Amino acid sequence: MPKRRHVVITGGGRGIGAEIARRFAALGDRITVLARTREEVEKVADEVGGYGVRCDVGEPASVEAAFMAAGPVDVLVNNAGVARSSPVLKTDVRVWDEHLKVNLTGAFLCSLKVLPGMASRGNGRIINVASVAGLKGYPYLAAYCASKHGLVGLTRALAAEYAEKGVTINAICPGYVESPLLDHAIQNIVDKTGRDSDEVRRELEDRNPQHRFLGAEEIAAMCVYLASEEARGVNGQALSICGGELNS
Fold first, then answer.
1. What is the CA angle 84-32-46, rounded to 5?
2. Are β-strands 51-54 and 75-78 bridged in parallel, bridged antiparallel, or unpaired?
3. N or C: less crowded end of the chain, CB within 10 Å?
4. Is the pLDDT of residue 86 over 90?
5. What is the DSSP letter of 214?
6. To the nearest 5 percent, what fractions of the chain are helix, strand and coil?
7. Beta bridge mates, 238
8. Catalytic residue status for 144
9. Considering the domain boundaries, does residue 193 fall inside one?
10. How far, CA to CA in Å, does 237 sit from each of 131, 156, 224?
11. How far apart are CA 213 and CA 236, in angstroms?
């Protein structure tokens, strides 16, 4: 019988993170969900029979307390993220700092908490949910692109450093995914341009050669694969799930 793993998911209170929690729970794994909003994290934790912890991944003290409570971790999914759009000349430094703090520093801090234990046990998986914006540039998303490019770079550096210790670190780079984060991005565009929300949705869908948004279950399925024994040879990769957008 497969070992029951302890899986920790950041940004697990909704959207992609919640779906990842459901998918691992269905496999019988023990789940700890981290998120900034207590109500959301507790709701998902109750649903999957797991443990919910309020945590701001960009704050070292909050991360320290959360992982002290969580205990040893077999699989870490760094999913917490923010995305705000604006022309670069109108991007406030506070918005820039927020993207780096949550999308990049958060993954760094959480990884630091699990790597020693994984290395000592000779086994572990870290999966960073990045974005196709970590592999190419998009207008009006300078802060987001910079943070996600940084996350891909962090993934590759840690993978090289821990390859001999039985730990794999990979990044998943989705295109637009149906999620609260996407809804917020669309509303942000509507608020700033006055355009119709349906028009904005169609335009974003058309960036995908399949003319659709991805489902959160597609990202969750890739997480499950990367955490599996069959994927032990996959390391330091930035795997795009974007319907072929990077080829167009």
1. 95
2. unpaired
3. N
4. no
5. B
6. 55, 15, 30
7. 171
8. yes
9. no
10. 13, 7, 15
11. 26
- List pLDDT tens digits, range 167-176: 999 999 998 8
Domain membership flag for residue 154:
yes
Cα→Cα distances 65→31, 60, 82, Å:
17, 9, 22
Q: Among 144, 162, 176, 225, which one carries the catalytic annotation?
A: 144
Asked, for residue 204, whether it belongs to a domain, the answer is no
The structure tokens 């969580």 sit at 70
Give the residue among 85, 99, 97, 70 at the shortest CA–CA distance from 10. Answer: 70
pLDDT at 204 over 90: no
Q: Which domain holds residue 118?
A: 6-175+215-232
Residue 44 lies in a domain: yes
Tell me the angle at which helices 60-70 and 106-121 cross, rounded to the nearest 10 degrees: 30
User: Residue 47 sits in a domain of what CATH number?
Assistant: 3.40.50.720
**In this predicted model, what pLDDT tens digit does every residue of 154-199 receive, in sequence order?**
999 999 999 999 999 999 999 888 877 777 777 777 777 778 888 8
Number of domains in the chain: 1
Q: What are 146's two structure tokens?
A: 């910079």
